[in-house]
Design brief:
This protein is of the alpha/beta class and 253 residues long. Helices cover 37% and strands 16% of the residues. The protein is built from seven helices and ten strands. Bound molecules: zinc ion. The site of zinc ion has 6 residues, from β1.
Length: 253
């Protein structure tokens, strides 16, 4: 059931090179508290920044099967996660991307191969999480051309909605944070980089707000309106404000 304030948990950068101990700890915490997060998977990781050990395909397959049995949702998170510089991301969080600026045919190949990889692991979900929030209008055209309905996790909106023929579930927080404001809040975490203290804070947060967590498939199956130009404008302003706040904090510390 939708509440006034709702949370989704998204976990980025799962791959055959991930930090299995940290991920397994976090999945166990989620299972213990009845939370089914979204696992964003890099099919063929080739980005040193998100490689945390030697490749371990068997352990990765066990991890996926454990998450499938815990009713987690899954997203495609790029193909190799290799990033290049760009100023053309629709969601302007970073100045780099894997998809942005790449041709339609190349992006289609990356995205189709990515979803095929997920299917080879027994995953049918069609959630889409672009590395570094980096995607452009060509990416949206590719996603719209696929046979199954793709759902994007991105954008600083209050509620989900449709744009470019695709459902967008907003993503606004990068650490566990209680919100008073009505809305659907997606908290994006990077388990590979989380410290023991981060994991404890996450556990304390989900115990405190336990009634307000939803899962991605439930949210994607609700009725949502179209997102407006104002929604995208406000998303842009909120992200700009976050960057200014970050800059001020750096100046003051
Ligand atoms: Zn990533």
């Amino acid at each position: 059931m939708l509440n006034d304030t709702n949370y989704l948990i998204r976990l980025d950068d799962a791959s055959t090179y991930m930090d299995f101990d940290k991920w397994n700890t976090i999945i166990e915490i989620c299972k213990e508290h009845g939370i089914a997060p979204l696992i964003a998977i890099i099919p063929k990781c080739n980005d040193n920044e998100v490689m945390f050990g030697p490749e371990d395909i068997d352990q990765f397959d066990d991890f996926i099967n454990n998450c499938l049995s815990a009713n987690c949702s899954f997203a495609l998170h790029g193909y190799t996660h290799e990033l290049h510089n760009t100023n053309d991301n629709i969601i302007d969080v970073n100045q780099y991307a894997e998809y942005t600026g790449v041709s339609f045919s190349e992006q289609k190949k990356m995205i189709e191969s990515g979803f095929e990889y997920l299917e080879s692991k027994g995953i049918q979900d069609r959630f889409f999480v672009a590395p570094a929030h980096g995607f452009d209008h060509t990416t949206l055209a590719v996603l719209g051309s696929l046979s199954k309905d793709v759902v994007i996790s991105d954008g600083y909106f209050n509620w989900p909605g449709y744009s470019d023929g695709l459902l967008w579930l907003p993503q606004q927080l990068w650490r566990p944070l209680s919100k008073e404001k009505r809305g659907l809040w997606t908290i994006c975490l990077h388990p590979n980089n989380m410290t023991k203290e981060d994991i404890s804070a996450f556990k304390a947060f989900i115990i405190k707000d336990n009634n307000n967590f939803l899962d991605f498939n439930f949210v994607a199956n609700q009725e949502w309106k179209k997102l407006s130009y104002l929604d995208f404008f406000l998303s842009k302003m909120r992200i700009r404000w976050l960057k200014i706040k970050k800059f001020i904090i750096i100046l003051l510390t």
